[in-house]
Amino acid sequence: MGESVEISRRNFLRGSHKPGGGRVSPPGATTESLEACTGCGRCVDACPAHIIRLIADRPALDFSVAECTFCGQCAELCPEPVFIGRPRHFPHVAMIGESCLAKNRTDCQACRDACPTEAIRFRPRAGGPFLPELNEEACTGCGACFSVCPVAAIRTRETDWERADV
């Protein structure tokens, strides 16, 4: 399994969470395949969620706007061989930190409500709010939980690249 790296929400949303100042690339784009990108911006225009931005003429995702739905429209409109396959997962999963309201005895389930794959569930706890649990197998890394967390308690943890179905 890949190295476990804790990433801040701010750096994740800015696309600067990967080693070496990298970014979260659209699904199917790899570090190597991005070399073919000309910076034309067709992927930006194609994204129905409006989460793709060009940073240094390369596409990066901005999860502060919305989550990635893995629709593939960015890949369909790209004239270059930037996108490989139709992945349904990113090479990272969400990780709920200790500043989570529910972990600190304040009722909140915003992340669960936002998760399209129901990867976040809450288990009962005697004498307090339910506690969040993440099913890593169900988490696609789509970013839906990031923008809704009122205390920015959600971070990412890298997983094996093979999980990304690239």
TrEMBL record:
Protein name in the entry: Ferredoxin-type protein NapF
Protein family according to the UniProt entry: Belongs to the NapF family.
GO terms, molecular function: 4 iron, 4 sulfur cluster binding; metal ion binding
Subunit structure: Interacts with the cytoplasmic NapA precursor.
Chain residues that bind [4Fe-4S] cluster 3: 139, 142, 145, 149
InterPro entries membership: 4Fe4S_Fe-S-bd, 4Fe4S_Fe_S_CS, Fe-S_Ferredoxin, NapF
Chief place where the protein resides: cytoplasm
Cytoplasm among keywords: yes
